[in-house]
Amino acid sequence: MGNIPQALIGALDGAEYVTVLTGAGISSESGVPTFRGKDGIWRKHNPMQLATPEAFERDPKLVWEWYLYRRGLMQGVHPNPAHLAIVELERRYSRFLLITQNVDDLHRKAGSLELVELHGNIFKVRCSMCERKLSEMPELEGLPPRCECGGNLRPDVVWFGEMLPHAALERAFEAAAQCDCMLVVGTSAVVQPAASLPLIAKREGAFVAELNYEPTPLSHLVDISLMGKAGELMPLLLRHLEAKGD
Ligand code: OAD
């Protein structure tokens, strides 16, 4: 088997409570573009025109077109071995939480159960006026779709300048503070408050490991930083863990 540091296997093997924080990098091998890489979404599009409450107020049709386009991209993709390895990892622990910044629904499709979506879910919709939530898009009679109350419906995702959903954030912070081991997979770790979760885990005594394609601002702050593809590293990590338990 390839090179996974013993310290990480040991930390996972001895842990009672494990958390995993994921970002766009975990879905890149499924074909979902990341935000900040070479071909990243925010290299080609200005988030201020597409992903802010002001942009939605100014041009809700444009924002909806952008989100329908992204939904279309995400609808046709499937979980990859990294998503599936996290499902297997969850089965090993009685206390486990997966915290994702992704809105693509791939963790749920893979079968993850204890899941917090910090930035919402692109397939869900809510009213920008009465805050009513819908798990599916209503029949479209033009953009933007309307709520029963007359307000504009919007994608149930977090935009720049907006607060994260309170319950999700609280659960994520609590888990970071309480876990014994945290894996940070495929995130550039530059967007707050998600980026501070590994630091909280570390401060409170957890073993924190990063798995990423390239170094991030977290790399020198965590216990181990593994460079490689999540779709290869995560299944490998799981195999090492299973071998240790045999
Ligand atoms: P980014 O696009 O900022 O970062 C993706 C990270 O994944 C980078 O560090 C890549 O090196 C790494 N990566 C890419 N492919 C990988 C692979 N196959 N295996 C391992 N690592 C890989 O995405 P996020 O960190 O998720 O917010 O960005 C955070 C937030 O910024 C997003 O949730 C989004 C965005 O603006 C909102 O929309 C609110």
Summarize the structure in words.
This protein has 246 residues and is an alpha/beta fold. It folds into 2 domains: 1-32 and 79-119 and 164-246, TPP-binding domain (Rossmann fold); 33-76 and 121-157, SIR2/SIRT2 'Small Domain' (2-Layer Sandwich). The protein is 39% helix and 18% strand. The protein has helices at residues 6-14, 25-28, 41-44, 47-50, 53-58, 60-75, 81-91, 106-110, 166-178, 197-203, 230-245, and strands at 17-22, 95-100, 115-117, 120-127, 133-134, 153-157, 181-185, 207-212, 224-227. The strands form 2 sheets. The protein has a 6-stranded parallel sheet, with helices on both faces. A 3-stranded antiparallel sheet has the order 5-4-6, covered by helices on one side. Helix 1 packs across helix 11 (230-245). The radius of gyration is 19 Å and the shape is elongated. The two termini are 15 Å apart. 39% of the residues are buried. Bound molecules: 2'-O-acetyl adenosine-5-diphosphoribose (OAD). 2'-O-acetyl adenosine-5-diphosphoribose binds next to helix 2 and helix 11.
Write the layout of secondary structure elements.
Elements: H1 6-14, E1 17-22, H2 25-28, H3 41-44, H4 47-50, H5 53-58, H6 60-75, H7 81-91, E2 95-100, H8 106-110, E3 115-117, E4 120-127, E5 133-134, E6 153-157, H9 166-178, E7 181-185, H10 197-203, E8 207-212, E9 224-227, H11 230-245
Parallel strand pairs: 1-2, 1-7, 2-3, 7-8, 8-9
Antiparallel strand pairs: 4-5, 4-6
Helix pairs in contact: 1-11, 7-11, 9-10
CATH topology category name of the largest domain: Rossmann fold
Quote the distance from N terminus to C terminus: 15 Å
Number of E strands: 9
Order of helices and strands: HEHHHHHHEHEEEEHEHEEH
Shape: elongated
> For this structure, what is the CATH class of the largest domain?
Alpha Beta
Number of domains: 2
| CATH H-level superfamily title of the largest domain | TPP-binding domain
User: Roughly what is the average pLDDT, rounded to an integer?
Assistant: 94
Which architecture of the largest domain per CATH? Answer: 3-Layer(aba) Sandwich
**Widest sheet, order of strands:** 3-2-1-7-8-9
Name the bound molecules.
2'-O-acetyl adenosine-5-diphosphoribose
Strand content: 15-25%
Instruction: Briefly note the structural class of the backbone.
Output: alpha/beta
Largest sheet: 6 strands, parallel
Helical percentage: 25-40%
Please report the number of helical segments.
Answer: 11
